[in-house]
């Protein structure tokens, strides 16, 4: 995109509350805006993060403390605004940030350019229980969902839905950092559902149980976009998840821009119903029995792989937001079906293969090499720590003579009587990532 299309006098501030050094979406936003001549300020925990090495970062700012109250988040952002000294486009990079900015809109509006978002829409769509009701109102397919009122109801609902079932906490941004609770898991027995429900108070939000839609080839899809002030969706498109980490669940390791009118229609229908404005990221899974695309998640911020949808004019969702909020027209770029996006640390073999089509890597870039090098050093240390932790746990369980029970978000090991499952692959599944590593959405 020619630099002249964006108003380079207006800086951008990226907000990330989650502590996650491997969030490649933040780096993608830094590069996208920085290459267009925008001053990019990053409010995030940058300790050891490869993002801090990017030559496109104008300035790093300390984030709010973990579990910060709204007043603390407002104070942090207003302090950054005072240093920037002119109104900036504010782009939250995680759900917690998007919800906080939505709640603080009146307080932040004098210092930042923000989409005219109606009401508490970001909080409503990020809430998994509320999303069920929103999908019903908009006639968008959604997995059959039960919100149990007791541990006994949780066990009963798991059985009635047909094991395995997907268990989610409705407001995952409220989960305590070191609780061991994950935002989404697959449970395979009524007892596991009961045990999860008993931790509701600790989790800080409702537990919901959903019918399990098995993974499979050509079943996992996503849609990224930006809704401008007129309600038009641009800056993104539909994509297909070719490889996930861990396999069968988790975040997108390899994605491809693939035309899909059905997914695009569902995205437009839902954003129209909500009056949504701003950046969004939707996750879908196609039901193998009916062919319907079920909405799994609505993330009110950029997805980690948003750079997959950089079109023929160089437009993506963060550039679309900057253009729209500075009252500049969005260029009519041509879609680029077949364009691929690869996250090297989750799919190293795919990253090493010669690219037959247009491809972007999450970490390596010829004009910004330092973050890629820093990522590999950080990733090696991360993997070493995980292996040591596994060895310690294995040793402890061996001494105790008790085999630990593991609940993973992955395909089930054996078919169930409900025909909702598929046989698991014979290869061992990789260790599930932390919630921070999953970044938002797959």
Automatic annotation (TrEMBL):
Q: Which domain of life is it from?
A: Bacteria
Q: Which UniProt keywords apply?
A: ATP-binding, Nucleotide-binding
Domain (ATP-grasp): residue spans on this chain:
132-326
The segment annotated Disordered runs over 405-442
Q: Which residues form a coiled coil?
A: none
Q: What is this protein called?
A: ATP-grasp superfamily ATP-dependent carboligase
């Amino acid at each position: 995109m020619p630099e002249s299309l964006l108003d380079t006098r207006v800086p951008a501030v990226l907000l990330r509350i989650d502590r996650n050094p491997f969030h490649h979406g933040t780096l993608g936003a830094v590069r996208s805006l920085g290459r267009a001549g925008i001053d990019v300020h990053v409010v995030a925990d940058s300790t050891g993060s490869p993002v801090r090495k990017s030559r496109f970062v104008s300035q790093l700012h300390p984030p709010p403390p973990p579990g910060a109250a709204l007043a603390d988040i407002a104070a942090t952002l207003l302090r950054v605004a005072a240093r920037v000294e002119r109104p900036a486009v504010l782009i939250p990079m995680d759900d917690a940030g998007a919800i906080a900015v939505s709640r603080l809109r009146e307080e932040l509006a004098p210092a930042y350019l923000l989409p005219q978002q109606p009401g508490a829409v970001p909080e409503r769509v990020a809430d998994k229980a509320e999303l069920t009701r929103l999908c019903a109102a908009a006639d968008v397919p959604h997995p059959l969902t039960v919100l149990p009122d007791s541990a006994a109801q949780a066990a009963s609902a798991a059985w009635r839905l047909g094991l395995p079932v997907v268990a989610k906490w409705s407001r995952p941004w409220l989960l305590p950092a070191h609780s061991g609770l994950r935002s989404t898991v697959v449970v395979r027995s009524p007892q596991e559902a009961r045990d999860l429900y008993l931790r509701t108070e600790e989790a800080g939000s409702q537990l919901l149980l959903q019918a399990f839609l098995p993974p499979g080839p050509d079943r996992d899809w996503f849609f990224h976009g930006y809704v401008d002030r007129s309600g038009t969706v641009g800056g993104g498109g539909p994509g297909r998840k070719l490889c996930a980490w861990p396999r069968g669940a988790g975040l997108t390791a390899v994605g491809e821009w693939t035309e899909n009118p059905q997914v695009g229609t569902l995205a437009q229908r839902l954003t129209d119903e909500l009056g949504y404005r701003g950046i969004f990221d939707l996750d879908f899974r196609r039901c193998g029995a009916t062919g319907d695309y079920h909405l799994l998640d609505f993330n009110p911020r950029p997805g980690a792989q948003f750079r997959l949808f950089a079109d023929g004019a160089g437009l993506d969702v963060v550039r679309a937001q900057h253009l729209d909020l500075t009252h500049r027209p969005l260029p009519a770029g041509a879609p680029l079906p077949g364009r691929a996006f690869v996250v090297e640390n989750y799919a190293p073999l795919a990253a090493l293969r010669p690219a037959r089509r247009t491809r972007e890597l999450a970490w390596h870039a010829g004009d910004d090499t330092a973050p890629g090098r820093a990522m590999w050093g950080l990733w090696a240390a991360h993997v070493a720590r995980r292996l040591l932790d596994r060895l310690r746990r294995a040793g402890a369980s061996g001494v105790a003579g008790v085999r630990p029970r593991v609940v993973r978000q992955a395909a089930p090991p054996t078919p169930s009587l409900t025909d909702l499952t598929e046989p698991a692959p014979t290869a061992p599944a990789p260790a599930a990532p932390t919630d921070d590593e999953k970044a938002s959405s797959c």
